[in-house]
């Protein structure tokens, strides 16, 4: 049996969270087209007869830390490189190599762990910068061209990781697929819908907290899971935009979150959602990572 940790690193929006979900086979990390979606180290666990891989998703690195939260994201990405067994560097060949890429490459080069370059988004026809990333091959022990979206070459990536892991006992029970506590995972799904529904900078000033979860029964009807949650924002103007005219926007966010939660959890959901202003939520929530 082999067992160990494989960290997914790369700049923002290269598809690390989409890749994590595809590797695990279920939704573990939230995704959106916007950077700074991932804020914590998220573990996605793959267990098979060969052993267990704990894939670690990380935030992208930002060239400049504009606030405490962004600084924490950079620190989280850096700390994830220590104490792991394999590094998977995820690259996006639709974007040219930039400053954030060079920062990450320097961080990765300083480590001694086996390194795999996973060139993602190969489902895109003729990615314009793929040759730039292929030229980085001498910095890595292996290059694998994958598509997280189409689940292309993911078995090859898993096999390559197993080949590089040490022998050892599993870190998690066989049935477990994530390290996320249930409340935190619920808040992440709702936050994803805020990112999807809202544009510009609003998502970056928001967080979601779960206040209550309760199973409710009504006569012979199937039980309903009641979830009470609050969207926190630092700006009163953003609160009004999140609610929308006639509460239209918050209804759209709530509907999208409820439909996805019902599909994943296979149960009826009643989502009680509101928006509050909390100018210090970044100080409160940009603290310890979920266990």
TrEMBL record:
PANTHER family: GTPASE ERA (PTHR42698), GTPASE ERA, MITOCHONDRIAL (PTHR42698:SF1). GO terms for cellular component: cytosol; plasma membrane. Monomer. Its main location: cytoplasm. It comes from Candidatus Uhrbacteria bacterium RIFCSPHIGHO2_02_FULL_57_19. Belongs to the TRAFAC class TrmE-Era-EngA-EngB-Septin-like GTPase superfamily. Era GTPase family. Residues 120-123 are annotated as: G4. Pfam families: KH_2 (PF07650), MMR_HSR1 (PF01926). It is found in: Cytoplasm; Cell membrane. Residues 36-40 are annotated as: G2. Residues 2-167 form the Era-type G domain. Residues 57-60 are annotated as: G3. This is GTPase Era.
């Amino acid at each position: 049996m082999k067992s160990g940790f494989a960290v997914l690193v790369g700049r923002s929006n290269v598809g690390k969270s989409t890749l994590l979900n595809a590797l695990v086979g279920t939704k573990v990390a939230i995704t959106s087209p916007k950077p700074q979606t991932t804020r914590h180290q998220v573990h996605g666990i793959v267990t098979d007869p060969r052993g267990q891989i704990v894939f670690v998703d990380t935030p992208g690195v930002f060239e400049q830390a504009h606030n405490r939260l962004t600084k924490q994201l950079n620190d989280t990405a850096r700390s994830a490189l220590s104490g792991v067994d394999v590094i998977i560097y995820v690259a996006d060949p639709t974007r040219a190599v930039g400053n954030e890429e060079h920062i990450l490459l320097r961080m990765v080069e300083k480590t001694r762990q086996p390194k795999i370059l996973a060139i993602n988004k190969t489902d895109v026809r003729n990615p314009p910068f793929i040759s730039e990333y292929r030229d980085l091959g001498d910095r890595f022990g292996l290059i694998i061209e994958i598509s997280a979206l189409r689940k292309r070459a993911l078995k090859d990536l898993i096999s390559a990781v197993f080949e590089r892991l040490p022998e050892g006992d599993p870190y998690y029970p066989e049935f477990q697929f994530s390290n996320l506590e249930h409340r935190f995972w619920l808040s992440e799904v709702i936050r994803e819908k805020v990112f999807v529904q809202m544009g510009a900078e609003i998502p970056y000033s928001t967080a979601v907290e779960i206040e209550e979860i309760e199973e409710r029964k009504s006569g012979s009807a199937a039980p309903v899971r009641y979830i009470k949650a609050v969207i926190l924002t630092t700006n009163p103007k953003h609160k009004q935009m999140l609610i929308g005219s006639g509460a239209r926007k918050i209804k759209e966010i709530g509907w999208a979150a409820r439909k996805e939660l019902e599909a994943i959890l296979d149960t009826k959901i009643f989502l009680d959602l509101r928006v509050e202003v909390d100018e210090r939520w970044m100080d409160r929530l940009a603290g310890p990572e979920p266990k």
